[in-house]
Amino acid sequence: MTDFKLITDAQWRERLNDEEYRVLRQAGTEAPHIGEYTNTTTEGVYSCKACNTELFRSSEKFQSHCGWPSFFSPLAGDKIIERQDLSHGMVRTEVLCATCESHLGHVFSGEGYDTPTNLRYCINSICLSLEEKPIETATDDN
Ligand SMILES: [Zn+2]
Fold first, then answer.
1. pLDDT at residue 34 above 70?
2. Which part of the chain is the MsrB domain (predicted)?
3. What's the CA-to-centroid distance between 141 and ligand 1, angstroms?
4. 8-30 pLDDT, tens digit each
5. C-alpha distances in angstroms, 8 versus 3, 14, 94, 100?
6. CA-CA distance, 140 to 59, in Å (whole number)?
7. What residue numbers bound the domain in which 111 lies?
8. How far is the CA of 140 from the centre of ligand 1 (A)?
9. What pLDDT does 140 receive?
10. Catalytic amino acids?
11. Residues in CB range of 135: below 8 A, 6 or more apart
12. Is residue 139 part of a domain?
C-alpha cells in the first residue's frame, strides 16, 4: 500500500492537476458556488481526491448555503486531522486528510445550523470524489 505521507512534492504535482494541487497541497480554496458538489444530494460516500480514503458521507451533508459542500461530521473522527490555522488574519481550524495530509477545508462551530453537532465542515469539492452508493445510518428520528 502506498504511504501517501512519503509522496514528494514533485510526485504530487504529477498526480494532481494544477487546481487540485493548489487546493490540496497548498491549502488553497476553490471559488464559492462553483464546486462540483456544492449542492449535491446524491446518496454516497465522498473520498479524498488525493488518496481515495473515504472521508464524508451524504448522510452528514447539509445545505449551509455557504457556497461549499458542508458536512456536520466526518465519516469517522480518525479520517481527518484538525489543526489551528492562523493564515489570512483569522483563527480557523483547518481540516486535513489523515491518510495523506492533504488540505480539505475548514471546520466552523457554533454557527446555529440545525444539525446534530453544530459543526460545519466546509470542504472544497475539488478535494473530494463522490461514489454513489447506499448509506446505512443509525438514525434516531427519520
Ligand atoms: Zn487523502
1. yes
2. 9-133
3. 32
4. 999 999 999 999 999 999 999 99
5. 11, 10, 21, 11
6. 13
7. 8-132
8. 31
9. 55
10. 122
11. 43, 44, 45, 57, 58, 59
12. no
Domains in the chain: how many in total? 1
Q: Which residues contact 94 (CB under 8 A, 6 or more apart)?
A: 27, 82, 83, 84, 85, 103, 105, 106
In a domain, 3, yes or no: no
DSSP-H helix ranges across 31-112: none
Cell 514528494: give the residue: 8
Under 8 Å CB-to-CB from 64, ≥6 apart: which residues?
Answer: 70, 113, 120, 122
pLDDT digits (tens, 9 = 90+) for 89-139: 999 999 999 999 999 999 999 999 999 999 999 999 999 999 999 998 665
With beta carbons less than 8 A apart as the criterion, state whether 83 and 111 touch: no
CATH of the domain at 70: 2.170.150.20
122 in a structural domain: yes
Tell me, in angstroms, the distance from the centre of ligand 1 to residue 29's CA: 16
Would you say residue 142 lies in a domain? no
